[in-house]
Amino acid sequence: MSLPRLDFYALTHNAAKWPLPGKVLLGCALAGLVLAAADLVLLSPLRERLSQVQAQEEVLRRQLAEKTALAAGLEAKARQFQHVQKNAEQLLQQLPGESEMPGLLEDIARLALANGLVVESVTPLDERPQAFYVEQPVQVGVTGNYHDLATFVSTLGGLSRMTTVHDVALQRDGALLRLDLLARTYWLARPGATRGRPVAQAPSFVYDAGALRDPFQPLAMQVDRVPLRAGLAPDLARSRGLLEGFAVDQFEMVGTLSRGTQTFALLRAASTVYRLAVGDYLGRDHGRVTAIDERHLELVELFPDEQGAWLERPRTLVLNVNS
């Protein structure tokens, strides 16, 4: 049995005679066919293009937001750059036009002496030329007690010439401490450069913990410290005694000895006990004993200041009850 053959010509030719529902159904079918063809041929490429444009729009929106934020901070960044540039120019004006190595070496020796330190070595190293300046490193080794060494390092940073401190190493050296550091000074590298107008320096760090306990010494061997004060110049022509060849920190008070109305202090250094009375000299810094008690010994040391005057520093050696 074969299916009847559909004759589209006869179907469309007699469409005018169809009832109204048939005509409506045929019109809807034809309209749907036209819309499907239009969507396939025309709308699909446009829809894909629209999706690409929307994605590109989202990227542009993000870029616009980033650039708007950048533009908002551009003025602040410009002011910050001008501030940094001004600071850099001021620092360059502080640099001398040529090496001031002799002055730096004198400053190091003077500061070490003023703080009661012994200079073990001062070794200038090779210059290091940079883009705008020349760097001159100096290896420094000094010996003393903890607080004097700390004060020495802080005063190095307050010199009139620009000086920085690096590679600080601290180690025990007998009863004292040895400090090794690298100090660097700078000058302009431009030929014929001269020092600019003086620039006010920012406040430098000042070590003010001298009244605290020395962390490298037992409590019984602590040396009390008070600030320096103006004093009279020592007699530099006086012959130095045996005990003036040692630093005060190398001594410890181990007792007292009374003879009549006079009291002596017994101090030990390098396994040897020495007897001192009021008025005797002690230490490398013109120290002189001013009072002796059963529990402590008082003395006054003298140091030169930056203007050539002399400063007094009272110190106290406390009795070592474990001796």
From TrEMBL:
It comes from the Bacteria. Pfam families: PilO (PF04350), PilP (PF04351). This is Pilus assembly protein PilP. It comes from Pseudomonas asgharzadehiana. The lineage of its organism: Bacteria, Pseudomonadati, Pseudomonadota, Gammaproteobacteria, Pseudomonadales.
